[in-house]
DNA sequence: TTAAATTTTTAGGTAAATCTAAAAATTATT
DNA sequence: AATAATTTTTAGATTTACCTAAAAATTTAA
């Protein structure tokens, strides 16, 4: 059984490992909003407990045990987010912080019954996949909207940024999960993208386009 | 904002204060499963923060601020218990420990929406009243089953013991909330009570009868 | 391939919540 | 009222998760 803090470290290491194999001390510190020295302390502890493999100065990688623990927390986080949106009418930009707390509740029975109550959802309100109780989930292959070419079409199926500000902005633009879009033009001046969504033509910045994930379903 | 630990102290002091006005250090220590010396430390802290009035060697009483904080935690605890039983099909003997964790989640929006989702329940699975968002609730007046006389009738509306062992035992005997009972006899030998419930005559020990709460609705 | 910049670790300390052992105050009993 | 028993507090440590400052290792750049 891990502490609240250890769980947060494991989850953050897990997410960072999606990008780079060896996760650096500084990267963890930044995510945990703490100092590198504190991270080193915790890393040693996690290594001792068998959650990570650690070589001094070389960063960490999760062991199987560590990966399982991390995926379990991710599963809880995302299931609670579904609960908040589907059952309690939270908006997709309001759920993250509460889920950060709820994910640490320790009860296998609770999370399995919650999963059932929600109808075994496959993805959370931000389009992220929800691991099943064995930790398995489909690693969906998304394209970033920014990488599409003119006249490409697709469906919005995820976002790679979960800040409330970003999500509220998307909401206002009508760019929510499931929406069909088509690329009309890319502005020379600032690289902003003209897209067609729900019959309307709108312009979104490069920064926004970078964080919208599309499942392509048309002429490539 | 109080810590997890402070919240537990406040809740326990609140419950102990339902019996005696001045709550003793040792009583708190027993409930918190900790040592009296630790309790003294925490009491000082709570007094400094204005949650309790404290006179050395005289025990503590909650201030209004402390009472409000405690009632808020009780409200959360009981609402989560309702959620677990009504929505996730937990049994009434399975909910307490999980609710002990859930009660510390800090989000006013969450608890208000949960309350609404549950239909603003007035009592929890053990018959305990749920404070509204202003901390108000009816202090229901119960009689202990043990205090009833032969031929008295009533409805089971609560229990004053929440251990899983006790609740499972009641379940097996068919003594659940809402059940009508009538006192048939009190055994001279061991003080055990013969009661009529759902057409059947059963015998319950004094110990069990002490912890069943009845709202009388018949010949007194 | 040195020197500079960056990253990471060590050393030494703090604050919160706990503990044990012993001292002090209160309450109960003779 | 004196003594015994109980309750409560103090003193001094421990553990966890932090911190700052400085040293050490690694990486990058000249
Ligand atoms: Mn989230
Ligand atoms: Mn999410
Ligand atoms: Mn309970
Ligand atoms: Mn209850």
Automatic annotation (TrEMBL), chains A, B:
Keyword Flavoprotein carried by entry: no
Entry keywords, A to Z: Activator, Cytoplasm, DNA-binding, Iron, Manganese, Repressor, Transcription, Transcription regulation
Domain HTH dtxR-type residue range list: 1-63
InterPro entries linked: DtxR_MntR_Metal-Reg, Fe-transptr_FeoA-like, Fe_dep_repressor, Fe_dep_repressor_sf, FeoA_core_dom, HTH_DTXR, Iron_dep_repressor, Transcriptional_repressor_C
Main location as per UniProt: cytoplasm
Any Pfam family the entry gives: Fe_dep_repr_C
A GO molecular-function descriptor: DNA binding
GO cellular component, one term: cytoplasm
Protein localization: Cytoplasm
Protein task: In the presence of manganese, represses expression of mntH and mntS. Up-regulates expression of mntP.
Family per record: Belongs to the DtxR/MntR family.
Assembly description: Homodimer.
UniProt name for this protein: Transcriptional regulator MntR
């Amino acid at each position: 059984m891990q502490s609240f803090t250890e769980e947060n470290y494991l989850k953050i290491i897990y997410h960072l490992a999606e990008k780079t194999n060896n996760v650096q001390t500084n990267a963890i510190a930044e995510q945990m909003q703490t100092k590198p020295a504190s991270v080193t302390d915790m890393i040693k502890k996690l290594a001792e407990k068998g959650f990570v493999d650690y070589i001094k100065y070389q960063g960490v990688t999760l062991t199987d045990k560590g990966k399982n623990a991390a995926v379990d927390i991710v599963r809880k986080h995302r299931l609670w987010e579904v609960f908040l949106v589907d059952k309690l009418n939270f908006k997709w930009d309001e759920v993250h912080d509460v889920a950060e707390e709820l994910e640490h509740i320790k009860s296998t029975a609770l999370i399995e019954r919650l999963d059932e109550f929600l109808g075994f959802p496959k993805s959370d309100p931000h389009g992220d996949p929800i691991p099943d109780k064995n930790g398995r989930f489909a690693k969906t292959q998304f394209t970033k909207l920014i990488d599409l070419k003119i006249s490409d079409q697709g469906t919005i199926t995820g976002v790679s940024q979960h800040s409330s500000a970003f999500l509220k902005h998307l909401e206002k633009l009508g760019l929510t999960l499931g929406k069909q879009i088509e690329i009309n033009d890319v502005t020379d001046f600032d690289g902003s993208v003209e897209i067609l969504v729900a019959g309307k033509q709108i312009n979104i910045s490069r920064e926004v386009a970078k964080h919208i994930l599309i499942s392509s379903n048309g002429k490539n």
